[in-house]
Write a structure and sequence with these properties.
CATH architecture: 2-Layer Sandwich
Enzyme class: hydrolase
Shape: globular
Organism: Buchnera aphidicola (Hyadaphis tataricae)
InterPro entries: Ribonucl_H, RNase_T, RNaseH-like_sf, RNaseH_sf
Number of strands: 7
Order of helices and strands: HEEEHHEHEHHHEE
EC number: 3.1.13.-
Keywords: Exonuclease, Hydrolase, Magnesium, Metal-binding, Nuclease, tRNA processing
Largest sheet: 5 strands, mixed
Mean pLDDT: 92
Number of helices: 7
Low-confidence stretches: none
Length: 225
Amino acid sequence: MSTNKEFNLLSDRFRTFYPVVVDIETAGFNAKTDALLEIAIITLKMDALGWLHKEETLHFHIQPFKGSVINSDAIAFNKIDPFNPLRGAISEEVAINSILDLVNKGMKIQGCTKSIVVAHNANFDHNFLMSAIQRANVKNNPFHPFVTFDTAALSGLVLGQTVLAKACKAIGLTFDNNQAHSALYDTLQTANLFCELVNRWKRLGGWPLKKIKKKNNICCHIKLI
């Protein structure tokens, strides 16, 4: 069983933020009007030595909300038939509440004060998630309203790559292009990538912060922003 010290490691690592990896497939680019069709999330945990790992996964096919727009170009790209009964789609509200139940539970266990979206080109997924939460009339949204961890930006810095498939391959992860643009697969790969980026920084000595001594013998911390 995990100890409280293990839980505190995750909270301390991201200034009490609880990272949740998210990928969303949609019927367009407008988060206010276009249908959300598929969503997956993966929560994360940190072991007693401070290494980041995947924890729990949720994945839902979503029924287009009433009055939503379905753009043919988006459907042709992600190859999702929104009205196929074999999808096993559920309402957006049910999916969002199930996700938030898991997130709130994880935040409490890990001693975190706010959840933060981790996604590849995170602004897109964050906007759709926030809009869906608003449509579900959630009173206490656990997610930060604008801060995200964008693995595209992080990969550009660390690996010189911003495309998810190329970033995964550059860091030594396999990537199946035939499974890409599935919310579940892309979330899994994004979670693997984020964990490896964070853990690689630790292996290189970038975390935890080290103390250095200046010439006048005054100690200071290296601040990483």
